[in-house]
Design a protein that fits this description.
Length: 101
């Protein structure tokens, strides 16, 4: 995928959830790519202060949007658990203690 495909087109399994996950992933990937570009510009160190501040602000905004997408994805993750009756049930994904921030 080249980052310009927004619909989830080919490669989607035809399941609405997969298409939505693909669209979110693409948007996250775009944000991450833009954030990397901002970081590269800032790390080059040859920008005037005003431009550095502008790129820093853009980077912070991109970081926050990316974090929001990741938080949303984490809430949607469910772990499949086997029950004693042989049926399956789902439970919300939980972050292991000490694995947070």
């Amino acid at each position: 995928m080249n980052g310009t495909e927004k619909s989830g087109g080919a490669g989607g399994a035809g399941v609405a959830g997969d298409a939505a996950a693909t669209a979110t992933t693409e948007r996250f990937d775009e944000i991450l790519s833009r954030l990397r570009g901002v970081v590269d510009k800032l790390e080059a160190g040859n920008l005037p202060l005003e431009d550095s501040l502008k790129f820093f602000e853009e980077g912070i905004a991109l970081c926050r949007r990316g974090a929001t997408i990741l938080d949303s994805a984490e809430r949607k993750v469910e772990v499949l658990l086997s029950t004693s009756g042989g049926t399956a049930r789902t439970a919300p994904f939980e972050t292991p203690p000490g694995d947070g921030d």
